[in-house]
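User: Predict the structure for this protein chain, please.
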Amino acid sequence: MNDILNWMETSLVGEMMRNSVWLFPSAEIFHFIGLCLLIGSLMVADLCLLGVIKNMSFSALDKFLSLSVFGFAINMTTGILFCFSDPFRYYPNIAFRIKMLLIIAAGLNAIWFKFSIYPKLGKLSRTVETSAVAKIIAILSLLIWFSVIVLGRMIPYVEE
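Assistant: Here is the predicted structure, written as structure tokens:
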């Protein structure tokens, strides 16, 4: 693993992230924008599935889910850049490791949603209550992503 971490640290990307005055702060700005897109759109979709938002059609969720994917792509890209900036700090950090596990869990939850609930949504009338499985997926999504945010904020303050 040290070979990979050394490669990341000494790579052009790692050097640029550490030595550029503007690159790391710019990545942080884009990471925040991606987070807003991801969490904001997921909250709307999850709250709709939970029945909290009642005046939006299930077919309108597509637009919000597309924003979620776009926000996640931004965050994944900028997150990788952060890792290259100081891989020996990120890799052993327990908050970072748990955050990565939760992101995998969020991906599995999204796959569960995509194959179990999503195909049925377009056919449902807005007056129909979503299934218990849909509500469980929505609650898990909210819990996981808010935990990811908290852990992301903890990374600078937690040592191995």
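The mean pLDDT is 92.
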